[in-house]
Specification:
TIM Barrel; 2 domains; Rossmann fold; about 450 residues; about 15% strand
């Protein structure tokens, strides 16, 4: 049996040669879990620097050449439309194909995801490793006679004009029992750059209830951790087999489990070839001892999800923490010689020009290397989605643009406010870049003789 796991195209569709060199880890974990049942291949369009005007035909040709029996797709809300289109393209090329859709969007809105993608046969809600194994085994045994999907927990399926659900599947309890992500079998291997092998995750779930995040609504919200030893086995594999010389831990709060973080930092520091890495975390989960341990282990950059510099907004989005805590954390990172960036969002339902200005005023007081600014966009499965009365989601979500206005400001006013805020952030980033280039260490290295 041939299984093709595909990530929906985004940058690939632009035909301008841009790429995103990050492996979709959800697909990689699923591929590893079923590698003994099928020949697994990965179609990852955004790793290819495509220059052309017919990207869908390019994808159709790739699928035709692979001749898969089963197509597995993943999607977040931002690329769900592309996933549905890719399923249609695949169905045209391979009419008897079984098409399965998973990912965050399918998990938060399984019925809508299935109804909105006519070429998709099944939706997997929640973590997909074991569910896809059972789907493949049933398909292999019964094929075109269509197995009894109701017998497989975690599956949503079609029954005539109806959409039905099997029993829910509990999330994986022991992450160490899962095989390491599968990183081989790429359809377009020649397009992959070294950065592709930098990504890894060390935990699943999150205890926080941020209103813009869908994780709290998922069955897998309970936080589970890989052991430090298990993480190091993957780090060793990335360095030794794939030549990774940099690591990016994609956990949304890498330092959530303090003791495990310290243990992992110690193992990273003891490695024969220390590898620089970056993390994402919260300002209130990075104390001095943990920071010192991570710096010793090779910490190169920290991305803080700050979200707002307006105290009322922080409280309303359920990320309440004193601004002094944020300021202190950023200063500690900066004083440790580690690069530090901050994510901010504006355009909350209660936002106005004054609250947005307060947020940016605070952001500019921080010694950040860069600020990333996004527009608060309600997505299915989030509390923000409910607060916005289930506003329609754009067919292609771009958080860098005010595609959905949930403020009380008129659309045109909010668009102008966001444009001014973006310009202000860009000017800040340019100033910070100039400061880095004129830092004393740089000047010293480039002094002319005499």
């Amino acid at each position: 049996m041939k299984l093709l796991l595909a990530d929906p195209p985004e940058m690939f569709l632009q035909g301008q040669g841009a790429t995103r060199q990050v492996q979709p880890l959800g697909l990689a974990y699923v591929g590893a879990a079923v590698a003994d049942l099928a020949q697994v291949r990965f179609l990852l369009p955004d790793t290819r620097a495509y220059l052309g005007s017919d990207p869908w035909q390019e994808l159709a040709d790739a699928i035709a050449a692979e001749r898969p029996d089963v197509l597995g797709l993943t999607a977040v809300t931002a690329n769900y439309a592309a996933a549905a289109r890719l399923a249609e393209v695949a169905r045209q090329v391979r009419p008897g194909l079984l098409v399965v859709l998973g990912g965050v969007h399918a998990s938060t809105e399984p019925e809508a995801a299935l109804r909105g993608a006519p070429a998709v046969d099944l939706v997997v809600r929640g973590e997909g490793e074991q569910t896809l194994r059972e789907i493949l085994m049933a398909w292999q045994q019964q094929g075109l006679r269509r197995p009894q999907w109701a017998d497989i927990p975690g599956v949503w399926y079609r029954d005539g004009d109806q959409v039905r659900a099997a029993l829910p599947r509990p999330p994986s309890a022991d992450l160490d029992a899962l095989p390491l992500p599968l990183r081989e079998g790429l359809v377009w291997q020649a397009d992959v750059q070294p950065a592709f092998y930098q990504a890894l995750i060390t935990l699943r779930g999150c205890p926080y209830q941020c209103i813009y995040c869908a994780v709290p609504s998922l069955d897998s919200a309970r936080t589970r951790y890989r052991s430090a030893a298990n993480v190091m086995a993957e780090v060793d594999q990335l360095r030794d087999r794939y030549g990774a010389n940099y690591l990016f831990f994609h956990d949304s709060v890498f330092t959530l489990h303090r003791r495990r973080t310290l243990e992992l930092a110690e193992l990273l520091a003891q490695a024969p070839r220390p590898t620089p890495f970056c993390i994402q975390t919260r300002a209130d989960r990075l104390d001095q001892q943990v920071l010192d341990a991570l710096v010793k282990a090779g910490l190169h950059q920290v991305f803080f999800g700050i979200e707002s510099g307006d105290p009322y907004s922080l409280e309303q989005i359920r990320k309440a923490m004193p601004l002094a805590v944020i300021r202190d954390a950023v200063h500690r990172v900066q004083q440790a010689g580690v690069r530090c960036s901050g994510f901010f969002m504006i355009g909350w339902p209660w936002d106005n020009e004054a609250s947005i200005a307060r947020s940016l005023d605070f952001a500019e007081t921080l010694p950040l290397d860069a600020i990333s600014l996004f527009s608060a966009t309600p997505l299915p499965g989030t509390e923000l989605w409910r607060l916005s009365q289930n506003r329609a989601v754009p067919s292609s979500v771009d958080f860098r643009q005010p595609q959905v206005n949930v403020t009380s400001m008129a659309d045109g006013v909010y668009a102008q406010v966001f444009a001014a805020a973006s310009q202000r952030v860009e000017q800040f980033n340019q100033r910070q870049m100039a400061l880095r280039w004129t830092a004393p260490t740089w000047q010293t290295l480039h002094q002319q003789p005499g």
